[in-house]
Write a structure and sequence with these properties.
Elements: H1 6-14, H2 28-33, E1 35-36, H3 39-45, E2 54-58, E3 61-69, E4 77-85, H4 90-102, E5 111-117, E6 120-126, H5 133-139, H6 144-163, E7 167-170, E8 179-181, E9 187-189, E10 196-200, E11 208-209, H7 222-227, E12 229-230, H8 232-248, H9 252-255, H10 280-293, H11 304-324, H12 335-342
Parallel strand pairs: 1-5
Antiparallel strand pairs: 2-3, 3-4, 4-6, 5-6, 7-10, 8-9, 11-12
Length: about 350
């Protein structure tokens, strides 16, 4: 992964001055980083943003399924996701476009191009046929091992954001709707519009103070919600909530209204669709790293690199147990017994 220098970022956004043309001759830095579409191109691809093409919506815009041609020689169409930003989401449009132009990782949604035409700010992404993690959990169609694999992929993407470049990037918008799944059920992180660049990786990380707290309520770390303090550990907290939801098979809003997600043993509300699939030792590792991610004090939370390693360990323990298990199902031990096993 590379990041533009501050000077290059200024060049990047100077080309978004007032213009009545979406075919303006942009500086070479934009031309090299992503493709530019005309508004007419994207109207045609989405049947004029028809409601039947709508596949998602949020606070910053609506998402449509579109179809584009590969090139003049190949007339076949391919599916894309087209996000049309609301006026109040134009800052998020700029942030997301800037970051996605620079970020390349197997667990990030791929940017195809953009359109900047008067009052239309649009980003075009690769299409993800299996929808979001939220949708898959609602349908109850994911096995326990597949859930672990998805979490590992997301953890690797976040670790790359936090430690894979000369500057830390904090995602700030982790929720199950922003974890998308391709045709192979491979997870891709989306929703980079609230991303914030942190300190240079070689320097000692310092908390960022933001006046406006943004994100999804329930996934926002307590310190950020309290006074706007933002660090990479805020993403860790949000990911901890995701881990709970993966075990529950439901969103946190279906499970608790108190905000204390660990007020009772997690296995009491485990998704019935995966009961009998979870090996005890795997669960021990999984629930331990989940609890650490949700620590109230940010300094007590692990890094995403540690989370990645622990989830990988949990998956390995599950696979080993599956090889030796002849009964076909596991009995998930209570939290009390699990704690005894640890001791």
């Amino acid at each position: 992964m590379f990041l533009l220098s501050d000077r290059e970022v200024v060049m990047f956004w100077n080309c978004f001055g007032n213009t009545n043309s979406s075919r303006r001759n942009y500086p070479i830095v934009i031309g090299e980083l992503c493709r530019q579409f005309s508004l007419a191109d994207l109207r045609k691809s989405t049947n004029n943003f028809h409601q039947n093409r709508e596949i998602g919506s949020g606070g910053y815009g609506k998402l449509y399924k579109g179809y584009l041609q590969h090139n003049d020689k190949d007339a076949s169409d391919y599916a894309v996701a087209v996000k049309r930003f609301k006026v109040e989401g134009w800052e998020e449009f700029k942030t997301e476009l800037e970051l996605l132009c620079q970020l390349r990782h197997p667990n990030f949604i791929s940017l195809i191009g953009f359109c900047n035409h008067e009052n239309d700010k649009i980003i075009v992404y690769e299409y993800m046929p299996n929808g979001s993690l939220y949708e898959c959990l609602q349908r109850g169609e994911l096995s326990w091992k597949k859930r672990l694999e998805i979490c590992i992929g997301v953890a690797r993407g976040l670790h790359y954001l936090h430690a894979g470049a000369k500057r830390t990037i904090i995602h700030r918008y982790i929720n199950p709707n922003n974890i998308l799944l391709d045709h192979n059920m491979h997870p891709k992180l989306a929703g980079f519009g609230l991303g914030v660049k942190g300190a240079h990786f070689t320097s000692r990380p310092k908390p960022i103070q933001l006046e406006n707290v943004k994100g999804t309520i329930g996934y926002i770390a307590p310190e950020h919600l309290k006074d706007g303090t933002l660090t990479d550990k805020c993403d860790v907290y949000s990911f901890g909530v995701i881990l709970l939801e993966v075990a529950w098979g439901r969103t946190l809003f279906d499970m608790t209204s108190s905000g204390n997600y660990l007020e009772k043993p997690v296995e009491e509300d485990i998704d019935p669709n995966i009961k009998g699939q979870i090996a005890t030792k795997c669960w021990q590792v999984f629930i331990d790293i989940t609890q650490r991610c949700l620590k109230h004090e940010a300094d007590e939370r692990p890094t995403m690199g540690e989370v990645d390693l622990e989830l990988g360990h949990a998956l390995l323990l599950q696979e080993q147990a599956d090889i030796s298990n002849t009964d076909g199902e596991y009995i998930l031990l209570s939290k009390t017994i699990i704690n005894q096993c640890k001791d």
